[in-house]
Amino acid sequence: MALQKNVLFACGTGIATSTLVSHAVTEAMKERGININSTQCKATEVRSMLNGVDLVVSTTQLPTDLGVPVITTLAFLTGVGKADVLDKIEATLRG
Amino acid sequence: MDAFLSGLKAIVDTLGATVLLPVVIFIIALILGARAGKAFRAAVTIGVAFIGINLVLGLMLGTIGDSAQAIVRNTGIQRDIVDVGWPSAAAIAFGSSVGLWVIPIAIVVNIALLMARLTRTLNVDVWNFWHFAFIGSLATAATGSLGYGLVIAALMAALALLFADWSARAVQQFYGVPGVSVPHLASAQILPIAIVVNWVIDRIPGINKIDLSTETIERRLGVFGEPVVLGLIIGLVIGVIAYYNAGDASTVISKVLQTGMTLAAAMLLLPRMVKILMEGLLPVSEAAHEFVRKRAGDRELLVGLDSAILIGHPAAISSSLILVPIAILLSIILPGNRVILFADLAVIPFIVAMTAPVLRGNVFRMVVVGTITLAAGFYVANALAPLFTSAAVASGFTMPANAVQITSVVDGFLWISYVVIAAIQNLAVFGLILLAAIIALCFWLYRRNTDAWERAAGAGEPVEASQTQEA
């Protein structure tokens, strides 16, 4: 059975860039055998959305004391270094 | 040409955005090289998003509009221009006759300026092309001519690239985002204001020493960053002022609570609907990215991204949390104002984020600059509301019977929109030429004195550190 993980995607609006990243990561992780249950939110809402979240992926800066792994990356927007970040995400989710 | 364009506009008006935009998006996606199945699904999704946005907009406008009328009756305060928020503005923009053309126009402008070596930014942020379409659709609403709207959209696309190049070094250094620039008109427009105000504050003894700590602000005012709660609170307050005398206690209480819940719902649902629109645009945006990259040559380019990537910075968050109550206060005390703020109270970070490099992240100064910008913005919004409203109607959005007008902070509050509309209303074609000339002059001045311009925007020394980070 594939691994099931909850990932929270954050950006300034919870709509624009986080939608793009959420799609990219969810598709890529599916190929690697991890099913992602994705939610999205604004950077200011992250703290109240953390319940049950395994990983936060953000396109903008987040507080450092969330108690959940956070990966902040622009790779999915710029296209530079996508593979590295995907490896990192996979490692965090399997770890 | 004019007959062709007006015929086209007639077709657009009859079919409406829900039908026509999907067709156009499908064709554009195919031309840019997306797969047919993907393009088709994307196109239908976009049509669905329009229907969703229209529903929520109706809910929100109905509630706020009725309350606004009750408030006028109760207090004599006339606040009948409703802030429907950027999600609505974006939908109006993409659903307008200009919106149908904006994607190819902005791509052509970008490629042309890249080839002419007049810009370094590859604007892959297709979503935010709506800002160009929006100002274009205001121009079309003002003149009744699609041609004006298209030219304005093209000029705005160029202007956004100029702002992106200009602020790139400052943004990269301050926010730590190498290789990126932000061609986002609504965020960039504050730059000139920030530069001037900063210069003034630097010269006022005492005031020039003030700064605020971001942590206490985030803890105390964090609630203003949560849209549902913000929507509920504003809804309750509006409800109380509108219905405190609506009858016996139980009627009053139920009316007030209903207003609160409805507006909380609108605050949450409106962005959700726009997310559907965003999902529909994804394949187009991916295809456009590839399309432009292939044609841009091997040059090292800046990737133009949404200013949403800047908004998580503590300085941006803190200053906009403080600006929420300030903006509401302004809406009450500014003489002559008719705007009732609502949906865009959630996106004030977009207005102030780009000031952070100029102001070195000084929250106090960001609040001052933000306040000045918003105060001016109210008058822009009051002036542009009739055009905003008729642009919405032209895009097929239903306006409620309670005779309200609409606006939004993003982009209804922007001085750029005002300058553009003033120019074409007063000078017609010469206005277009004048705007084009001014933008061209700015391009030229920036190229002549790039370093000074970038320093003004808040860039420091071209440090080695940022380059090692890149490598």
TrEMBL record, chain A:
InterPro entries: PTS_EIIB-like_sf (IPR036095), PTS_EIIB_2 (IPR013011), PTS_EIIB_2/3 (IPR003501). Keywords: Phosphotransferase system, Transferase. GO terms for molecular function: protein-N(PI)-phosphohistidine-sugar phosphotransferase activity. The keyword Transferase applies. It comes from the Bacteria. GO terms for biological process: phosphoenolpyruvate-dependent sugar phosphotransferase system. The keyword Transferase applies. Residues 5-95 form the PTS EIIB type-2 domain. This is PTS galactitol transporter subunit IIB. It comes from Aquamicrobium defluvii.
Automatic annotation (TrEMBL), chain B:
GO terms for molecular function: galactitol transmembrane transporter activity. The keyword Nucleotide-binding does not apply. It is a multi-pass membrane protein. It is found in: Cell membrane. Keywords: Cell membrane, Membrane, Phosphotransferase system, Sugar transport, Transmembrane, Transmembrane helix, Transport. InterPro entries: EIIC-GAT (IPR013853), PTS_EIIC_2 (IPR013014), PTS_sugar-sp_permease (IPR004703). Residues 9-447 form the PTS EIIC type-2 domain. GO terms for cellular component: plasma membrane. GO terms for biological process: phosphoenolpyruvate-dependent sugar phosphotransferase system. The chain crosses the membrane at residues 15-33, 40-64, 84-117, 129-162, 182-201, 221-246, 301-334, 340-359, 366-393, 413-446. Its main location: membrane. This is PTS system IIC component (Gat family). It comes from Aquamicrobium defluvii.
